TrEMBL record:
Domain ABC transporter: 332-568
InterPro entries: AAA+_ATPase, ABC1_TM_dom, ABC1_TM_sf, ABC_transporter-like_ATP-bd, ABC_transporter-like_CS, P-loop_NTPase, Type_1_exporter
GO (cellular component) term, any one: plasma membrane
PANTHER family the record matches: ATP-BINDING CASSETTE SUB-FAMILY B MEMBER 10, MITOCHONDRIAL, ATP-DEPENDENT PERMEASE MDL1, MITOCHONDRIAL
Protein name as annotated: ABC transporter ATP-binding protein
Chain segments annotated as transmembrane: 21-41, 53-72, 134-150, 156-175, 246-264, 276-299
Keyword Ion transport part of the UniProt annotation: no
Length: 577
């Protein structure tokens, strides 16, 4: 695990240090226990010395209880340290993502970020807990057991000295062979999570088109890939136990052979043989622990790289040193603006955009699919940064504003409306967390949302389910408009945000804008001419370029694209009205 991740340990350093200390003390107790057992057998039992047996037996009980206490404490501290470490990692990733621009988020898929915050962090948590417990235990246990064995019989100690490196090398080799398969598994997990999320989010579409079987087959295929990769990895790791058992039996056979000869010739006592067997088991089990932890670390290493990737991502947008915190007014200027999602040298979505919008104006934007209408307005609150040129709000380049201050003054109702789990009151207070009930109800009346809210049994305390799936598309749009109005912004952007409401309601909303927020600059992207017909200026976009600017009357005379859309929508005498 790298240093960047270790920074997330923070307030759990004490537990991370105490856990291995208690483990080491526990090891000391466990190493002394076989020695006492040998003494009881060789001195107490063989000589029939009952007081000695009682005395050493009492020491043995005390040591055992101490070892138990120290082991429990070590486990508690290790669990607290690992859980706290995981909590901090989740916190750090979540907070990091909050600072990401849209471009940063585009680098990671949503399912991938979810996997990193769940499965990957769990892997790191488990590896960390095992490391501070078992990796501190195993080396001390092996070294101390070897020393105690060396004191009893040099030949047996030499047997361990030869066996331990060979066995350790074999087990590490097995773990390394399994490692690449574990790395592949997590990439496939991202695809699996993406399939599940896509299916759940689009469940209505799946059912409408009767595509359940297709989705089941798609899930089964990726699930099978994950299964096969795990099987490959586990088949390799499965060699650990047989190799360990085989080596253990060979060592014990060799140990008995050497020790029995020593007992016959009187250079070793039967009790010492017992303690050597226990030391042998302790050494071999410690090696097993090391390899088990090594496999966990190998798995966690892939997860560590994926977590580090998120934490190392540099937010594209940074506040300037002397960032401006106050937006003077809602005027907007585009000066030779060009933009590419791929950055410098990429295909341009916007080309040579020059605009001047006065504060308080109502601006309509119209254009065909792919004409970059949404891209244009997303540059105003710096959801993306321009590739060339500059955008000014209130006469100041948006890059010179503090991001929070700029976005506080630019309310945006995105094309895809999002509501969160909670009451209507809680959802609307995203616009202003301190807003009173009266203020919320006032903006809902402006957004033509109050009428349908009053029809709910719980009115403004009605619970919205995740994604707002218990309200209609038009209701969701009106709630999002109300939420945006609650911010009292200097600039209000509606990105095709009234497409699901009827033309009469749309007209009421625009009337409320004119009368209630005359000083707010209003930018309305629409597909319906009626939604922007009375705007102060209408911008016609085509292939990322401005094809025309003017009032509706002017564009009808001078712009072929606008005239074609207008005639196609008004033909037949405004049928939708």
């Amino acid at each position: 695990m790298n240093r960047k991740l270790f920074q997330s340990i923070r307030e759990y350093k004490k537990e991370s240090i105490l856990a291995p200390i208690f483990v080491i003390l526990e090891v000391f107790m466990e190493v002394l226990i076989p020695l006492l057992m040998a003494k009881i057998i060789d001195v107490g039992i063989q000589q029939g010395n009952l007081p000695y047996i009682i005395k050493m037996g009492s020491f043995l009980v005390v040591l055992t209880m101490l070892a138990l206490f120290l082991g429990v404490q070590a486990g508690n501290y290790a669990a607290i340290a690992a859980a706290g470490y995981a909590k901090n990692l989740r916190h750090d990733i979540f907070y990091k993502v909050q600072d990401f621009s849209f471009k940063n988020i585009d680098n990671f898929s949503t399912p991938s970020l979810v996997t990193r915050m769940t499965t990957d962090i769990t892997n790191v948590q488990m590896a960390y807990m095992m490391s501070i417990r078992l990796l501190s235990r195993a080396p001390f246990m092996i070294i101390l057991s070897m020393i105690m064995t060396l004191k009893i019989n040099v030949d047996v100690a030499l047997l361990f000295l030869v066996t331990v490196p060979i066995l350790g090398g074999l087990l590490i080799f097995i773990a390394k062979k399994a490692h690449p398969h574990f790395i592949k598994v997590f990439d496939e997990y991202d695809i699996l999570n993406n399939t599940v999320q896509e299916n759940v989010n689009a469940s209505r579409v799946v059912k409408a088109y009767v595509r359940e079987n297709h989705e089941i087959d798609k899930f089964h295929k990726i699930s099978s890939v994950v299964y096969k990769l795990f099987i490959k990895a586990e088949k390799i790791v499965a060699w650990n136990s047989p190799v360990m058992q085989f080596t253990m039996y060979l060592v014990i056979l060799a140990l008995v052979l050497i020790s029995s000869e020593a007992i016959v010739f009187g250079t070793m006592e039967p009790g010492e043989l017992t303690s050597i067997v226990i030391y042998a088991l302790q050494i071999l089990m410690s090696l097993m622990m090391v390899t088990f932890v090594f496999v966990m670390i190998m798995i966690a290493e892939a997860s560590t790289d994926r977590i580090t990737e998120v934490l190392s991502e540099v937010p594209e947008m940074q506040n300037a040193k002397d960032a401006i915190k106050e937006v003077k007014d809602g005027s907007i200027d585009f000066e030779n603006v060009e933009f590419s999602y791929a950055g410098e040298g990429g295909n341009l979505s916007l080309k040579q955009i020059n605009l001047h919008i006065k504060s308080g104006q109502t601006i309509g934007i119209i254009g065909g699919t792919g004409s970059s209408k949404s891209t244009l307005v997303q540059l105003i609150p710096r959801l993306y940064d321009v590739t060339k040129g500059c955008i000014k709000v209130g006469g100041v380049d948006v890059r010179n504003y503090e991001l929070e201050s700029l976005r506080d003054q630019v309310s945006m109702v995105l094309q895809k409306n999002v509501l969160f789990s909670g009451t209507i009151y809680e959802n609307l207070r995203w616009g202003d967390e301190n807003a009173s009930d009266e203020e919320i109800q006032r903006v809902c009346k402006l957004a033509q949302a109050d009428t349908f809210i009053q029809e709910f049994p719980d009115k403004y305390n009605t619970m919205i389910v995740q994604g707002g799936n218990n309200v209609s598309g038009g209701q969701k749009q009106r709630l999002c408009i109300a939420r945006a109005l609650l911010k009292k912004p200097k600039i209000l952007i509606l990105d095709d945000s009234t497409s699901a409401v009827d033309t009469k309601t749309d007209a009421f909303i625009r009337k409320a804008f004119r009368e209630e927020i005359p000083d707010t600059t209003k930018i309305i992207i629409a597909q319906r001419i009626s939604s922007i017909e009375d705007a102060d200026q209408i911008i016609v976009l085509d292939d990322g370029k401005i094809n025309g600017i003017g009032t509706s009357e002017e564009l009808l005379k001078t712009n072929a694209i606008y005239r074609e859309v207008y005639e196609s929508q008004t033909k037949g005498g405004n049928e939708d009205e």
